[in-house]
Model the fold of this input.
Amino acid sequence: MDIFLQTLVAGILKGGLYGLIGIGMSLIMGVMGIINLAHGQLMMVAMYITFVLSHYVGIDPYLSLFITMPSLFLLGALIQKYTLNPLMEVDSILPENQVLMTVGIGMVLVETSRFIFTSDYKSVQTSYSDATFYLGEISFSVALVIAFFIAIGFTLFMFWFLLKTDIGRSIRATAQDKDAALLMGVDSKKITIITFGLGAALVGAAGTILMPIYYLFPDIGGPFTRKAFVITILGGLGSTVGAIFGGLTLGLAEAFGASYIGMAYDDMIGLIIFILVLLFLPGGFKRLTKI
Amino acid sequence: MKKFIPLIILIVLCLFPVVIQNAYYQHLMILVFIWVAIGSGWNVIAGFTGQVSFGDAAFFGTGAYTAGLLAHHFHISAWWGMAFGGFAAMAVAFPFGWICFRLRGPYFALASLALNEVCRHIATIAEPLTQGMVGILIMPTFLSKIPYYYIALALAVLSVVFVQFVMKSKWGYYFLSIREDQDAAESMGIDTHKYKMVSLNIAAFLTGMAGALFMNYMGFIDPEVVFSLHDISIMAILVGIIGGVGTIYGPAVGALVMVAVHEFFRTGFFGLFKGLAAMTGSDAMISVAKTISHAHVLGFGILVVLVILYLPNGIVGDWDKLVGKIIPFKKKEAAS
Amino acid sequence: MILFELKNLVKHFGGLAAVQNVSFQVEKGEIFGLIGPNGSGKTTIFNCISNYFPVTSGSIHFNGQDITGLKTNKICKAGIGRTFQVVKPLGRLSVLDNVIAAAFSKAKNKKEAHDIAMETLEFCGLMHRKDIIAKSLPIGERKRLEITRSMATRPELLLLDETAAGLTPTEVDVAIDLIKKIRDSGVTIIIVEHIMKVIMTISDRIHAINFGQTIAHGTPKEVSNHKAVIEAYLGEEYAHS
Ligand SMILES: Nc1ncnc2c1ncn2[C@@H]1O[C@H](COP(=O)(O)OP(=O)(O)OP(=O)(O)O)[C@@H](O)[C@H]1O
Ligand SMILES: [Mg+2]
Done:
């Protein structure tokens, strides 16, 4: 029973973070209709920024959110503006041009990081990195709990942003019906740039708050990109609420998989879920709940 | 005159190993031929049918492992893999396509990426069968490169001719119709699900054969090599795009360019940096030379970005545009 | 002889009832007009017939057989061709290749497909455009390509969705001639059209719907004098004229 509860807690905590990663991807999916295959790689960039700030400047990882998020927003916006938006005007046979572009960008980000930081593992040691506390028999990692609440905070903020602000409404309108949004006077180019920036900033936040408990190397992005697209598919392409459920489901599945099957299958579990969703629930949770 | 160009190229390629006896260049040409087969396969499903695969390595690796495992477990010649490898890849493609092609949208692209990863994991985990990360080592059949050269050339030529044949047939019309508009295709009586499957299986077959040849030629494979996302799947896309999406000869051009680019990085700009390092003797230069030789992935990444931005239909597909940019006056001449 | 029959067709999109209990029968050899104001469910009926999406309930019969739920491509093979209101040319292929691709549905080999395609291009008056890339055609000829392509599948029943919309008056006359010519060649036609001149002059019978429900049917004259139709659709002007 204890193992079960412990696993459940671990899964939920992880799931909260995954939700944050998934929301960014879902936003991009919803507005641009593309899967961003550089998502995890953007997270990796944020992690390196956090690492540099902590290691060389001595800034606490959580504080560095104020630097990583704007930086990632800028990076995402630039990517959208100069590499993805121009593709809308290019006449090409392949419909997946933009997705391919994100793959190329991901490769450039990873290899540039390798160029600068080599392939060595890096980590950020803080006083709370290894700290735990107990509730009954169940142990909680302090850093993971903090990360979970920060993730929840950002998630709630995103909902407020999407529902209550003008830009948020424009984003939702564009996601629902591009042409109609255009007719209503939404500047769709600007919206795509903001959306990609936001998506990058959110996944950047996830990377930063993960830093105290995780290690870092240039290829770390790949598995997270895969997790992000599993979450997005699981939630239903483009659904933000779905992404949270998708994140939780993946977090739980990974936790239980690791406890009851074996650690080595971590990445595999996401892929299996992906295949199961394709088989039995095409359309994801969105399909079930119509959210 | 234009009709004879393929024939002339073929004759030149047949004479190549006789004239150029340098094993290194023969090796590069063998790689080019293998990539022509892979690129042609990718082009069938992505370029002609419009279903972009991000997971060609799944078929390539399956073909390679089929050849390797036949030799390893049953002690029969790995050349049998050339026959079975293609079919084994189809056995992977079939259930995969069956599931994914029922859905529209980006599912196929994503699922192919997932398939790539799943195959790599399986090859890594299923140690009793595949020896996991240790990989499979077989004795090469020939010491000389020449037999491999002609076998690879035959595979490349067969791939191109076969694709050309297919594209002139009913299947070709159906593939193009599906690429251009699936709803229209269905309303014209085309079973889009079935013909996407046909297209995918052609791609898988050609790629699987290429994988089997790779096993025979290299003599060693492991999951990271043959199921590599960057070095196989992405490279296949690059070969397909750079040469020309949806053109018959595009993959051949793309293969030549990509192998050259790959070599360019692998050798540190053809030894430039090594030379500089030796000349200056500086540590910095030596480390740069080392890094550059590992930076082919960075080169590929930059290439993906540039090609998609400026040459989305490839050298063959955007030939007029390309010629027009490099030699502007020539375009005017042609137009007038 | 009854060639085609729709029985109690219902189609819901989530909460929206786009088609509610529509039934009609089409005689072999006639031109059957389907009219209704914008958004009344005409295209949806076509999409249900060709099983572009599944019907909610009801059934579709063709040549005495229940074809409800047959796959879209099988519907075409069975002998029902259709055009799209929003034209769907195979953009990067030539006009001829567009038609050849369709002709394969009945042809045994490429030569036969080519022959059928050439014949159909001639019949539909698009021969002079055969080597043009489809996406560079002007709208009028794109609509014509839609018809040509569906004719190349050798249908017994042809569903035409607003093939005259967006055409110039001269082009409309040409289109009317073509539709009549197709009928005279033995193909039964169900036509959706907003342009009254077209629908009233060529239809043998007309079925009118509004909000997905049948409001009238009969000869063009009967329908155009029907009170519900005048109110719902034809508007004041036509009623007075
Ligand atoms: N795929 C769909 N999903 C949801 N609603 C749809 C879909 N297709 C059509 N509808 C709705 O069904 C109703 C009927 O639409 P339909 O296109 O059949 O009208 P129509 O009679 O063809 O109109 P028009 O004359 O403008 O072509 C409309 O309210 C439309 O918004
Ligand atoms: Mg309509």
Summary: Confidence is low (pLDDT under 50) at residues 330-336 of chain B.
